[in-house]
Amino acid sequence: MKNAIVDHITTVLTHYKGKIDTWDVVNEAIDDGSSGENGTFQLRDSFLTRECPDYIDIAFKTAREVDPEVKLYYNDYNNEGLYGSKTDSVYNLVKDMVDRGVPIDGVGLQYHLHTNAYPEYEKVVETMRRYAELGLEVQITEMDVNSVEGKTEEAFALQAKLYGEGLRACLNSPNCTGFITWGVGDSNSWRSNGYPLAFDVNYAPKPAYYAMLNVLKEYNNVEESDDQADEVDVTDTTVDADVDSAEEDSADEQN
Hints:
Blueprint (H helix, E strand, L loop, with lengths): L1 H14 L6 E6 L19 H5 L3 H12 L4 E6 L7 H16 L6 E4 L2 E3 L6 H13 L3 E10 L6 H19 L4 E6 L25 H13 L6 H6 L24
Parallel strand pairs: 1-2, 2-3, 3-5, 4-5, 5-6
């Protein structure tokens, strides 16, 4: 197993050397039941853990050896601050790596939210700050906001608020170097029944799009005319009720 890990990482990173600036080296290694108490973490019970307990160290060390210039990230879900045990467990894993000299440059916060389960803005900023104290970058890597209420004006308004807060948290955290949404239009999302993205099934912008645009305008001190302000009014959450329903992807429903 160790040889397979080394060969795979060596082959992929060598092929893309000089073309990729950041790699998600290990993804979703922490068990959902990990308590995170007293600096602890528990890895998922997988074939990797059973056959090669130090596979995370091997993966990161190999990646650094193959491409010393590329940024190396660990990526996970439910680690943005809402679920304290998972957030702490991921942090403890990464801190342990840093303390032992395992090469790592940053942590990906997948940021898969629900309209009935989402972190407070302050928790997100605090999570990012903790990694900054370790000398690490962070990125929001897979953001979407599942609407458990369906396609309603209220849900889309809350989506807009959460997208805006996620982007704002990143912009207000000096160590946050990336903000990525997990898709573009709702019809192509793995959570298509939850209308989770910033564009609808016809790729028309939703309130979430305008919320993020307004944050960027504010951050860059862009002044608007009254007409321009009307165009980005996130209070206009009118939605079209005629939408084809798509089967929801059942993979990793905890995200």
